[in-house]
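Fold this complex.
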Amino acid sequence: MDYKSFSKPELEALLAEEQKRFKKYVKEGRNVDMTRGRPSKEQLEIAMPMLKDAANYDYSAEAADARNYGALGGTKACKVLFAEIFGVKPEEVFVGDGSSLDLMYTLVHFAKQFGVLGGTPWNSLKKVKFICPAPGYDRHFSICQQFGIEMITVQMKEDGPDMDVVEALVREDDTIKGIWCVPKYSNPTGIVFSDSVVERLATMKTAAADFRIFWDNAYVVHSLYDTDDHLKNIFDVARKAGTINRIYSFASTSKITFAGSGISAIAASEENIKDINAKMFFKCINANKVNQVMHVNFLKNLDNIKKIMAQHAALLRPKFELFDRKFTEAFDGDRFVKWSRPRGGYFISVDVKSCAKRIVELAATAGVKFTAAGATFPYKLDDLNSNIRVAPSVPSLEEMEFAVDVMISAIRQARMEHVLKKVFGEN
Ligand SMILES: Cc1ncc(COP(=O)(O)O)c(C=O)c1O
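Structure:
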């Protein structure tokens, strides 16, 4: 709705009406958390058979007994499983513990401290920059901040980062050492990178020889629908183009089995994996291989993982669809309110120019919590004060109904307040 077409008294009356409705929500004194992409309790139950059967799995099937020290980069069977997920060879896999974010952090740490593949440690350079497509995943940006890496914000479009800008930047500037990408069901916009974007990323000229694409494939098998979305295999393109060392890819079972207590993995060239193993050698003896055996027995292979993910999708899909139905009812055709309709992943991205902070603030007063406005941008700087990330996985459908009503009302109020201020000069 274009509130600018109303007179000031009309708009004030409309706002008062909306505020009255909102007060009822506040009075309910509820608490709905939509801040982070956590699996719901029902989703966590899906992997419980893995724990029940754990005593019966064979932990000594491989030369290195899974219950003992050894096999730094993971069990063979686990590498095979992740190789299938990533679309690479088992020799191109390193298996870690419960968090892929930990692996991303570690690889940035290694690059800073020791350099990659014998290159100059990034710490000894005056400046190191990363390209950060935004809106993006706040934790990627936090890693950059922690290591003093300057972030260059590049617009995230419908099919991936704005590649004209990315190519121009990396061609000229050898202090740009990396880019963060969530190529499938991106956090938070839900988009899937197009073939063209994948090809351009894998083949673009980079001034830095040690440039790395941090290909965070967190949602590689996380489709909400039977027909999975296609993501071109970046390793296939890079292999042909001779740029395979450029890619560090990551995934985990955080949203397949147990969040933070599953297994994670890196896929990279054999040369990179050797380099990573050589550095990890000093950090630990091995990751939790008992958990790896449990996961291999439970997950089995990609086909079976897809069946497990269909159970997750059955729980998640109604929440995404409820959101879309209610937003369509409220804002269809409204050019001031935009929201994503993801086909996978964990997030819905909402854009309401100039109003994000106020919407999040208002919703919180009614007990509905969203990720802080701005968090999806480097340095938390959303210049347009527009983007809000919605994580619908945890609330029940009934809680979702409430939360979405609250959000709709908060959006209406924030927009009316904004117009009253901008057009009619109210404080
Ligand atoms: C894009 C992305 N990468 C990584 C993670 C965290 O993964 P993990 O649990 O494997 O550390 C998340 C969690 O929300 C995510 O959205």
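DSSP finds 14 helices and 13 strands in the chain.
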